[in-house]
Amino acid sequence: MDDSGLRVLVVDDDVEHLELVRRQLESFGFVVRTFDSGLGVTNEVREFRPDVVLLDVNIPALSGDRLVKLLRQSQAKSRLVLFSSSDRDRLRSLAKEVEADHWIQKGIAPNALADQLRRLCR
């Protein structure tokens, strides 16, 4: 898929991190939307129709792992990725447990993040 058509929704309660990731991904040609709450994500996914949803694990009220389950129930076609600064083993285990499509640790180099998203959407 051409990066210019790759749509990414980033969900995180840290607005500074949202802005950073948005700018990084847009610099690689991705179409990016951000959302700073777990509440209302299913509607945002339905409206935006992202190819990938990056979900922070530690969102108050509705965590990323719970959002994976809700989005699966809502028949979302997006790839669902846990995106967290959690320990690699914990993140990998949690992604497997909730049947997320992938997991990525925060702090990854921008080009590596873009490469992983491209591969995930092939």
Describe the secondary-structure layout.
Blueprint: E1 7-11, H1 15-27, E2 31-35, H2 41-48, E3 52-55, H3 64-73, E4 79-84, H4 88-98, E5 102-105, H5 110-120
Parallel strand pairs: 1-2, 1-3, 3-4, 4-5
Whole-number count of domains:
1
Quickly give the structural class: alpha/beta
Order of helices and strands: EHEHEHEHEH
Distance between the termini: 6 Å
The CATH C-level name is Alpha Beta
Unreliable stretches covering 5 or more consecutive residues: none
Helix content: 40-55%
Number of helices: 5
What is the fourth-level CATH superfamily? Answer: Response regulator
Query: Major sheet: order of its strands?
Result: 2-1-3-4-5
Largest sheet: 5 strands, parallel
What is the CATH architecture assignment? 3-Layer(aba) Sandwich
Under CATH, the topology can be stated as: Rossmann fold
* Mass-distribution shape: globular
Percentage of β-strand residues: 15-25%
Tell me, rounded to a whole number, the average pLDDT.
91
The overall strand count is 5
Radius of gyration: 13 Å
Could you explain the architecture of this structure?
This protein is of the alpha/beta class and about 120 residues long. It has a single domain (about 5-120), classed as 3-Layer(aba) Sandwich (Rossmann fold), CATH 3.40.50.2300. The protein has helices at about 15-25, 40-50, 65-75, 90-100, 110-120, and strands at about 5-10, 30-35, 50-55, 80-85, 100-105. The protein is globular, with a radius of gyration of 13 Å. The mean pLDDT is about 90.
